[in-house]
Write a structure and sequence with these properties.
The protein has 15 helices and 14 strands. By secondary structure, it is of the alpha/beta class. The structure holds pyridoxal-5'-phosphate.
């Protein structure tokens, strides 16, 4: 007599309906931690390489694979990997390239998390870093030693929005045989494709423009070569910074409008930067699209447009900058960048509050400096809100 499972068991297993015959137009969310097999050989093959089929979501996931393939295509890479955050992408790539006794050359102008990773955490694993001004490519060449395993730079570095001369740095990296890692978060592949300039790896905080809606924390890395992608994947498995499929699904959805958004972010930033540059209560504006910006010439060669991230100095020092960020209505005071809403931060009173003016200066931050991620609002409304916040 056949055994009939109980209601409890039937509730646990549910009823599995077959996949639909017609293809879904949108990528489904494979919100599952694990995948079932009918033969042990296929199971084993997938553990060795999930391109044989999904096995466990820390190793890979079909939704995540769709985002990885899309970013690889946009960046011109052979493949990509998604991570739980931008920092997971950056740390996993770093630890793939360098180990005990190895050396890294990095820009002095780095995202804060990347700086602490290289300055405080990597030394505990025996990895040392020389920080150089990458605006001087000769300084990069001089810092390279026989132990150097990576050069790490950012396409557009915050808060001064300095644009790296990627062809010049890539030429030095190639000559030394050292992989160049480029954080392309602020430019995105819409404005710059570092692999085309000779980089080996592009890393992103997909939290920012790639997803674009302030609702996901996610990272991604795209690779010029399959061997390095595979080695990074092997490390990702055991370090464990893998992405969640719901996050990769949201980012995949965000990427569909990335070119439209980058065009609007850049145009809005131009309107705001030009307005601020002429404003009596603003003493300086940092946006690489302005001819007055120190890296404007490099930016016109390396970027297709200038992105939506800028900084400016409000008259009145610390108090002036802080007051400005507290007075916006459309301008939301919050960390991060790259989403549809405009965000502002006054580093001297928030992210860098422990620093005195001399220490701020060393970090490239002035007391009244405000950082602004220009959103997708109507630029006239942003300018009206800016003017109101700058009054007095
Ligand atoms: C935000 C950011 C990171 C870190 O990304 P998370 O997703 O927050 O981990 C790295 N690099 C740059 C340039 C960033 O702006």
């Amino acid at each position: 007599m056949t055994h009939h499972p109980s209601l409890t068991t039937r509730a646990v297993h549910g009823v599995r309906t077959p996949p639909p015959a017609a293809r879904p137009v949108a990528t489904p969310i494979y919100q599952t931690s694990t995948f079932a097999f009918e033969d042990a050989g296929a199971y084993a093959a997938s553990l060795g390489d999930p391109s044989h089929g999904a096995v466990y979501t820390r190793y890979g996931n079909p939704t995540t694979a769709a985002l990885e393939a899309t970013i690889a295509d946009l960046e011109g890479g052979v493949g990509a990997l998604a991570f739980a955050s931008g920092m997971a992408a950056i740390s996993t790539v770093l630890l793939t390239l360098a180990g005990a006794g190895d050396h890294v050359v990095a820009s002095t102008a780095l995202y804060g998390g990347t700086y602490s990773l290289l300055h405080e955490i990597a030394p505990r694993f025996g990895i040392t870093t020389t920080f150089v001004d990458v605006g001087d490519p000769d300084a990069v060449a001089r810092a390279i030693t026989p132990q150097t395993r990576a050069i790490h730079v950012e396409t557009i570095a915050n808060p001064t929005m300095a644009v790296t001369d990627l062809p010049a740095v890539a030429a030095i990296a190639r000559e030394a045989g050292v992989p160049l890692v480029v954080d392309n978060t602020v430019a995105t592949p819409v404005l710059c494709r570092p692999l085309d300039h000779g980089a080996s790896v592009v890393v992103h905080s997909a939290t920012k423009y790639l997803n674009g809606h302030h609702d996901v924390v996610l990272g991604v890395a795209a690779f010029a070569d399959e061997e390095l992608r595979h080695r990074t994947w092997s490390l990702l498995l055991d370090l464990g910074g893998s992405a969640d499929p719901f996050a990769t699904w949201l980012a995949l959805r965000g990427v569909k409008t990335l070119p439209l958004r980058m065009a609007r972010h850049s145009a809005n930033a131009r309107a705001v930067a030009e307005h601020l540059a002429a404003h009596p209560a603003v003493t300086r504006v940092w946006w690489p699209g302005l001819p007055s910006h120190p890296t404007h010439q490099v930016a016109t060669r390396v970027l297709d447009d200038f992105s939506g991230f800028l900084a400016f100095e409000v008259a009145g020092g610390r108090e002036g900058g802080q007051r400005f960020t507290e007075r916006g209505t459309l301008l939301i005071m919050a960390p991060s960048l790259g989403g549809h809403e405009t965000l502002v931060t006054h580093p001297a009173s928030t992210t860098h509050r422990q620093l005195d003016d001399a220490a701020l200066d060393a970090a490239g931050i002035t007391p009244g400096m405000v950082r602004m991620s220009v959103g997708l609002e109507d630029p006239e409304d942003l300018i009206a809100d800016l003017d109101r916040a700058l009054e007095g």
